[in-house]
Amino acid sequence: MKENRLVVVGGGFAGINLAKKLAGKDQFKVTIVDKNNYHFFPPLLYQVSTAFIEASNISYPFRKLFQERDNIRFHMGSLIKVNPESNTIETDTGILSYDYLVLALGTETNFFGNPNVMRCGLPMKTIDDALNIRNHVLLRLEEAVRATALEDKARLSNIVVAGGGPTGVEMVGMMAELAHKIAAKDYPEAASRIGAIYLIDGSPTLLGPMSKTAQAESFKVLSKFGVKIMLNTLVKDYVNETVILSTGESIKAATLIWTSGVIGREVPGLAPEVVARGRRLAVDEINRVKGYTNIFAVGDIAYQTTDPDYASSHPQLAQVAIQQGTLLAENLLRIDRGQAPKPFRYNNKGSMAIISKFKAVVDLPKGSFKGFFAWLVWLFIHIIPLVGFRNRVKLAFNWLFSFLTDDPTLRLIIRPRKKEISTQPCVKVDGNSSIDRAASPPIR
Ligand SMILES: Cc1cc2nc3c(=O)[nH]c(=O)nc-3n(C[C@H](O)[C@H](O)[C@H](O)COP(=O)(O)OP(=O)(O)OC[C@H]3O[C@@H](n4cnc5c(N)ncnc54)[C@H](O)[C@@H]3O)c2cc1C
């Protein structure tokens, strides 16, 4: 039996669903390449960043995921370059050869070329980003309670979220919950509520791609919670902890969270003409990158215009990535058997967003609903796809505890210690070393 070397770069929704489908299919020797050693679930990142759940609740190590899958291997490394002429990829940890290559790297935050926002704004794309936001907000609040001037207290505790899509809406909804239910208990030094939460978007509505019901409900619920919503407004710059808006107004805020847009991750080595809108890779109806015979792209990074219902490509959603990854695995098996591959058609199962505790909005292809039932559906839908039974149980328990007590206990500022990097190599110390042995702790 011929063995095909298949390299999949990116172990997100598209990459792992493709690999899972090929598990046990020995005609493919699959190597998943990812810069992290874990798969994670982006839809719940905002709950990590607001200290509601632990990062480990929504992450799972690749090596454990594919423990008993003999034809699947993991390579930890970041893609540097594709070499189509030699069928190899370069990563920062080595070179890999392939017969088929699948690019499933997803997207990164788009700062629209603003260097100040890039430097001082906080993106929300990865587990690192979410933990960074958590630490940043908690540190600023500690500074705010120590500050003496009222305007410093306000600046340090104001939070501006740029981007009124699902991530921005879910983020401010949760922050408003925390501000109402926890801030007064945790920060008794702040006699009255200080600081405000702003949600800013350039379009005329929140939740742009969702139904009118979802847009109106999110605006109503968040406004009632005290979130200051500014529509038809763009963030122009972020200078000296001041958010400068297109309306000429500005907001003093030590925290600017940027959820305003994404752009495809760069893939050096491919012909420039395959790079389409949003830096996505132009693919044909079976997700093959245009102009190549053995390179494919799936998920957020793929730009496909052959699906009759999505002529300007698909929305960048988990379901699209899952369905593309799964179909590509089936198509690779078909190609291997000499059968014709099937074109991709997206089966839209609906979209949803949570606005606050007990309130969510759900859009299905045949209608929308909102409120408590929508919230229950949201909870269920977000537990089922988590990787790992233990993660599902832990998350369900954490949610139950947090919703019942209104007081989760994860508001910890934990940062890895930054160590001075020495230019001297570490060498074996001999018996006559001048190290002060008395200063070292005794070995027991
Ligand atoms: C905060 C947030 C909330 C979201 N909420 C929802 C939601 O509620 N519903 C929904 O449908 N969609 C949601 N999405 C979108 C959804 O997460 C994406 O559509 C989906 O993750 C795309 O899957 P993917 O496999 O294409 O890419 P990703 O899931 O982004 O996976 C890409 C993988 O590639 C790896 N990678 C990146 N660069 C490199 C490199 N250079 N070398 C090696 N590996 C690399 C990454 O580590 C990652 O594992 C949300 C996204 C975010 C950021």
From TrEMBL:
InterPro entries: FAD/NAD-bd_sf (IPR036188), FAD/NAD-binding_dom (IPR023753), NDH-2 (IPR045024), NDH2-like_C (IPR054585). Its EC number is 1.6.5.9. SUPFAM superfamilies: FAD/NAD(P)-binding domain. One of its GO terms (molecular function) is NADH dehydrogenase (quinone) (non-electrogenic) activity. Pfam families: NDH2_C (PF22366), Pyr_redox_2 (PF07992). This is NADH:ubiquinone reductase (non-electrogenic). Signal peptide: none annotated. Residues 349-404 form the External alternative NADH-ubiquinone oxidoreductase-like C-terminal domain. It is an enzyme of class 1 (oxidoreductase). It comes from Dawidia cretensis. Coiled coil: none annotated. Keywords: FAD, Flavoprotein, Membrane, NAD, Oxidoreductase, Transit peptide, Transmembrane, Transmembrane helix.
